[in-house]
Write a structure and sequence with these properties.
heterodimer, A: 262 residues, mainly alpha, two-stranded antiparallel sheet, 11 helices, 76% helix, 2% strand, globular, B: 242 residues, six-stranded mixed sheet, 10 strands
Amino acid sequence: MTRILTIANIVWLEVLRRKEFYMLLILMGAMLFILLSIDAFGLGGVVVYIKDVGLMFAWILAWILAVNSGARQLPREETQGTIFTLLAKPVSRLEVIVGKWLGVWTVTAFATFCFYLVIALAILLQRGRIDLPTMAQGYILHTMALSVIVAIAILLTTRLSHDAATALAYILTATLYGVIPTLSALALNTPGWRGSFLTAAYFLLPHLDVFDMRRRIVHDWGPTNTTILLAVLLYAFCLTAATLLLAWLAYRRKRFARGSML
Amino acid sequence: MSAAIEITDLSVAFTSRSGTVHALRNVSLNVPQGQVFGFLGPNGAGKTTAIHILLGFLEPTGGSARIFGVDVNQTIARERIGYLAENPDTYPFLSGRELLTMAGRLFRMPRARLVERIGIVLAQTGVATIADRLIATYSRGQRQRICLAQALLSDPDLLILDEPTGGLDPIGRMEIRKVIADLRAAGKTVFFSSHELSEVELACDHIAILSAGRVVADGAAGQLVPPGESLEKFFLRTVTGS
């Protein structure tokens, strides 16, 4: 575990010292400040509106941070040649994969926590009420979605270049969030084997939409049932573990050359 | 006592659409403990490939390699190795001291010993005064030294150096020679590849020459080169046949 935590620590220092995180936090604050100060369509100061738009920004910015940081880790080690120095130590490739995932996931979860704090502050400034249990559940499930997204980004970089992996990670995670959930509705209107295929795809492919509690937070519907929450946490754990296992299988025998893959 | 490095009939072939390239062909070497072993060869001879196999980066297509009796594909084999890569680079966002601390943690070194070793290797490689600066601000030679410091950090029994004097000025080269001499005096094994024949001549107890993936000469430094011939002439004659 010491080695995994050390590799995660290197990722933390990298993300924090690149100042990417601070830039996103400032962007988030600036966007909410604009929302609070402009009274477009008479919505200025409406708490529901602040929650809705604020959480949307939090999801988008955390997604960008997760994909960009996740997809950068392994390719940069290879192009800089630092992978040789790292693997020359008694460190297994599984520890490298898990350490990188843990580092990116925890730093992204921390950034998301800061985004939620900014939203909470904006709500309080408008004398709105914060439903803390629902907000906490929403945050936990959000970080679970990030765990899967980071694992997917790392998986793709085990065999693809940084640019290709980043683009594909954006497309794939957006599809898992936005397109897969619509397959069941499409299946109802599609007759024959095509309908069955869509139904099978709906149940077999991973869903990222199940981690999104924004509507419950925005409309004050209260926290979700604990059993459902635990089931979704288990689902996130299984998805992350399966993705990291695939990443390790793809990486364990990978050949490196100075600067690129052989 | 097992040999520091034991390579037996090692072969590596890379297959691509344009055909098969044999990087190593039935290479066998034995490096006893406590020796400074020079690994020479022209560009593309297979030196770095052999080193990459010793460090477990590559799997051979044939033969085997062991370090202190342990198969190189086992993670534990790397616990007694220090490695300095050719043209080494490292994390520019860390300071030199942070880099060494991270490296020590990867070896699971106890805290007190880590602090002690960091002080020793910083002094040994001449980068103590810049240890708290970010590596991004280091010159090429300073980066090479901090990378050497992390290779020495765990007080390894075997130090593998791949072209260690490449980016260094004459003072840096002299310091590398001193480090190698100190390690030899401490009974450590040093395996280094180099193009610098004069460096090898000065530092090594034993020399092996690799050409086109085969070992073409292997022997004690004092006995390999015939009397009256320089290592450079011998190297050219062995590699090019002229």
